[in-house]
Amino acid sequence: MTARPIKLITIAAFLLMSQDLLFAKSAKINWQSGRVIFAAVNGQGPGNSGAWRTNSTDIWWNYFISTEEQCYSVVSRQAPLKIGLTNNSMAKFYISRNQMYVEGPDGKNVELRISRKDKKKTCP
Question: Domain boundaries in the chain?
Answer without folding.
Answer: 1-30, 32-122
